[in-house]
Design brief:
about 650 residues; transmembrane; Translation Initiation Factor IF3; 19 strands; Alpha-Beta Plaits; cyclic-guanylate-specific phosphodiesterase activity; 5-stranded mixed sheet; 4 domains; LapD_MoxY_N; alpha/beta; EAL domain-containing protein; transmembrane helix
Length: about 650
């Protein structure tokens, strides 16, 4: 029972007790007084009537008239005149006064006795008759009833005012307690809030100060853990000079990319600065470092332009850089090479380098299943050929892969037909509890499309074209509608990936939320997921999570690990979970640095009770390490391959 209800009941009970006590005391003190008044009233009436009858006692008609006039003028139960000699009743009037509407229980409770009075009627010097008057207590009962009713309304009004006043008072005074509840709820949702204005009440002030201190300590502890983990990641996978990923991070990414069958054909671009040792001797270490930073900046711009969603840039050794990205059209590759050539030429012309060409570039195309060493060897050979022939760009014949499906118009026609018909093939992959593979946490929805020949194409074949043709937002809306239709026919909790375009602005977000608003019961069983590389800014992210929670849906992050600085914003977002990218999970049982990195992420997210799920678990050894660390969930081919949603 709430404090307000207890207060209401308490005040009402107190008012009732006070009212009853007050009425009892008033009744007991008034009973004798009213009894005496009734007796005096009866006696006065008897005396007056006796005096009046003295002169008319021998006239029966006058006697009756006098008795009747007095009986009709007051509250009397009985008036009679009795002969003293014969004890015969000479005249009598009796009856009850008109009912005043008093409840019977009240009359019985008061139990007020009637007053009695007697007087002697003289005939000369002889006592002739006796006048007996019995007054009725109706007048006194009516006065007591009115007093009780007035007292009741008075106490009821005072009680109501007390309840309203106490409610307002407590609501204002106990407002900090409501905020403390909000703080505790926010902590359970992985948010840290503090009450800036302290209450004036000393007891509540101490409670709020202690709660604020606890929240600040938890926030500081989480920030410290996040900073420690970020430092670990920087040391393990970061190049301190250029700010790019290092060779270790590149190897992890390339191996994961080549082993992921859901990824499409990709490109590896290898850039090597010419005569780095000679530059260092001729121009000094400072100038050489400036050159490497400039090349890193150019490659970073190239990545953002040509590989915005799936690019990976690293400095793998000395003056050698590697850029990994999804497949692009030949014309786009020509533009990429032309842009880099122009920018590198500008470095020579501005004097940052004294050799021309400043660097050599090699490009090779790889497919899922290729060996990483073979791809690197092919790129090295192409780069060596370019250096030997003093050419800027080397593009071996084996890298020229012709895809008959790569025609822009044919892909646009194929994808728009699927979108118009809302005919994506929905597959799902289960996500299990890490320490109990019999418990399914949810199913991840995967998209496939069917060709006219009946071939089922994985997302890796058409997703690059979805992004290239700017169809991502429309695909999210279609996939969401299809998923909700399937959820209406099945049970279970599902997760669905969406692209950053769908939450980038209010209009796009509202279009995404519309089907969720229409099916709130289904929305409660669905969690949307954003790729780490497509997250909006922190403020926008908070707004997206808030809007999704309003319709009952949640948001998670997938493929996490490359941008660990985002972990500082996790407490304020209140996410459903984080899924660690499979590149950090692959071979975790044999590579110590990956285990340390996953442990660091786990301890950082554990501080805010944020579930951590591992992607692409493929061996029992990997799962054993994840279980030992304590991850919440895991998914991958070790458990099950993707299957049709209804299957």
């Amino acid at each position: 029972m709430s404090l307000y209800k207890q207060l209401l009941i308490g005040i009402c009970l107190f008012a009732i007790v006070v009212f009853c006590g007050n009425f009892y005391v008033a009744l007991e003190s008034s009973r004798e007084q009213y009894h005496n008044q009734l007796g005096a009233h009866a006696q006065d009436t008897a005396t007056a009537l006796g005096v009046s009858l003295t002169a008319n006692i021998d006239d029966p008609t006058m006697t009756d008239l006098l008795v009747s006039s007095i009986f009709d003028s007051g509250y009397f139960y009985r008036i009679r005149v009795v002969s003293l000699k014969t004890q015969k009743v000479l005249t009598e009037r009796h009856g009850k006064p008109q009912d005043a509407g008093l409840p019977g229980w009240f009359v019985r409770m008061v139990n007020l006795n009637p007053g009695k009075g007697e007087a002697i009627v003289m005939r000369g010097w002889t006592q002739y008759a006796r006048v007996e008057v019995v007054s009725h207590p109706m007048f006194a009962l009516q006065r007591l009833w009115e007093s009780m009713v007035n007292s009741f309304f008075w106490f009821a009004g005072c009680s109501l005012l007390c309840v309203i006043g106490a409610t307002v008072f407590l609501r204002r005074r106990l407002r900090p307690l409501n905020y403390i509840v909000k703080q505790a709820t926010a902590i359970s949702h992985r948010e840290f809030l503090s009450l800036p204005t302290l209450p004036k009440t000393p007891e509540l002030r101490r409670v709020v100060e202690a709660t604020n201190m606890m929240v600040m300590q938890l926030k500081a502890l989480f920030s410290e853990q996040a900073q420690r983990t970020e430092t670990l990641r920087q040391e393990a996978y970061h190049d301190s000079l250029t700010g790019l990923n290092n060779r270790r991070a590149f190897d992890i990414h390339l191996q994961a990319r080549l082993s992921d069958e859901d990824k499409s054909t990709g490109h590896l671009l290898l850039v090597r600065v010419q005569d780095l040792m000679g530059l260092n001797q001729r121009m000094g270490g400072g100038k050489t470092d400036e050159l490497l930073k400039a090349v890193a900046g150019m490659l970073g711009e190239t990545q953002k332009r040509f590989f915005p969603t799936d690019g990976f840039l690293a400095r793998i050794r000395g003056g050698e850089f590697a850029l990994v990205g999804q497949e692009i059209l030949p014309q786009e590759m020509e533009n990429l090479v032309s842009q880099l050539g122009t920018q590198l030429k500008a470095l020579y012309e501005t004097g940052i380098s004294d050799v021309s060409p400043v660097a050599h570039l090699a490009q090779v195309t790889f497919q899922s299943g290729d060996a990483s060493q073979a791809v690197l060897r092919q790129a090295d050979q192409s780069l060596a050929e370019a250096e030997t022939r003093m050419r800027f760009f080397a593009n071996p014949v084996v890298a020229q892969v012709t895809d008959v499906d790569g025609d822009r118009h044919s892909w646009f026609a194929r994808l728009t037909a699927v979108l118009d018909a809302e005919s994506f093939e929905l597959f799902s992959q289960p996500v299990f509890e890490c320490n109990n593979q019999r418990v399914v946490l949810h199913h991840k929805i995967l998209a496939r499309i069917k060709t006219a020949e009946g071939e089922t194409l994985p997302a890796s074949r058409f997703m690059p074209w979805i992004h290239r043709l700017a169809l991502g937002q429309r695909m999210d809306q279609v996939m969401l509608k299809q998923t909700l239709r399937e959820m209406d026919r099945t049970d279970g909790v599902l997760s669905l990936s969406i692209c950053g375009e769908s939450v980038a602005d209010d209009e796009s977000l509202e279009a995404l939320l519309l089907p969720l608003k229409q099916t709130p019961t289904l929305a409660a069983r669905l969690t949307l997921e954003l790729d780490e590389n497509e997250l909006p800014d922190a403020e926008r992210m908070s707004e997206v999570v808030r809007r999704l929670k309003m319709v009952g849906c949640r948001l998670g992050i997938q493929h996490f690990g490359g941008q660990f600085h985002l972990i500082g914003n996790l407490p304020q977002w209140g996410l459903a979970w984080i899924k660690v990218d499979g590149s950090y999970v692959r071979n975790i049982d044999t590579e110590e640095d990956k285990r340390l990195f996953i442990e660091a992420i786990y301890w950082a997210t554990r501080q805010i009770d944020l579930p951590l799920i591992a992607e692409r678990v493929e061996t029992a050894g990997e799962l054993a390490i994840l279980e030992r660390i304590g991850l919440y969930g895991a998914m991958g081919r070790y458990f099950a391959d993707a299957s049709t949603l209804r299957g």
